[in-house]
Amino acid sequence: MLRYPYFPGCTLRAKAKGFDASALASARALGVELQELENWQCCGATFPLQADNSFPLVSPGRTLAAARKKGDKLITLCSACYNVLKRTNHVFRTHRDRRDKVNAFIEEEYTGDLEVMHFLEVLRDDVGFEALARKVRISLHDLAVAPYYGCLLLRPPKELRFDDAEAPRIMEDFLLALGCKVIDHPYKIECCGSYVALEAGDLATSASRLVVESARSRGARMIVTSCPLCQYNLDVAQRGTAGANGRGLPVIYFTQLLAMALELPEEVLYFHGHVIPPGPLLRSIEVRGSESIA
Amino acid sequence: MRLSRDAISSEDKRKLRDISGEQVQSCYQCGKCSAGCAMTGMMDLLPHQVIRLLQLGQVQEALASRTIWLCASCLACSTRCPRGVSLPSVMESLRVTFLRPGGRHLDPVSIPADVLENAPEQALVAGLRKYT
Questions:
Q1: A45, B126 contact by CB (below 8 A)
Q2: Across the interface, do B86 and A78 touch by the CB < 8 Å criterion?
Q3: I need a labelling partner for A104 at 20 to 30 A (CA). Which of A5, A270, B33, B77 fits?
Q4: Contact B42, B70 (CB under 8 A)
Q5: What φ, ψ does residue A222 adopt, rounded to 5°?
Q6: pTM of the entire structure?
Q7: Is B25 on the interface with A (CB under 8 A)?
């Protein structure tokens, strides 16, 4: 069993419980134990784009210093936590002054020698997509799924080094391992509107509708993401439109699809509050999957 | 618009550079940032026009623009910028010029009830950090 320190973040213990629970259960089934850090704090949800202000690095800095005492990797699921923690770690590695300032405040001597990893990277590099494919119990081979990366997993590419910033592949490879039909689409790395949903809801909705339409027009029946804010924006953008005539695309976390493919109990999925509920589509797959295995 | 040498090398402009860490003079106005921006639908100025105003020292005009509050910090522009300018950092320097002295762009009370109810915690934390 591989064991890694794990940072859930605020949303995964509240609105995105299904993301957390499905990931923890799937990881266990694949021989990986994600060990939650003690007394973790919110990462801040957005990386501060201010060269003269290190205060917002205090909270993610504490998390990094605490994780380093537990291991040499820190695993995240939420794209925002991944982005903030990895970028903060980059500051610790490359900006001596800012590192010293934050360390003095939190009374640590952390140097940035931790690897902040996304759970998708653990699946690819430690579990392996081929090994994952062998553990799939419910075949999803008829399910046409569009991956959606959004921005926080990929940018800025020089710091995150997660995947190719313009043509990423990791979610596609993951979906292929589950046996899905992967739907490529040009808006998979476009912004969903992010927090602008609070200030100008209509603008976020129109940005998100472009993403959903780009996936739907190429034949997708579902979208997967690793960001709770993308999940929310893409889902609510479909309110009153496609959903009403049964053409809506459910937007779920990649780990929920993983847990289904591994035939884990439904309790770990926590599908809740979706404008386009994923249940009907997934149940039809599940029935077909069991039949095809039988 | 009245241009002057004083405006082009003003104190306000220097402050923005200190906050953002970015050199707006590097921009040669190719427009790639605006071409790839997902949020231009409601912007009164296109992203490259904000940079142009700052190059010319028109800080107050840039501060008055709706555009700075509609940037979602998605970094599509800075990833593609051939001159290495991080426009989202410039937008943030403009926002915090208003916010740091106590300005509040978004009143939390104005957030619609269904958004408060359903939006993920991450959205509320990120939004309130960008707007208040």
A1: yes
A2: no
A3: A5
A4: yes
A5: -160, 155
A6: 0.96
A7: no
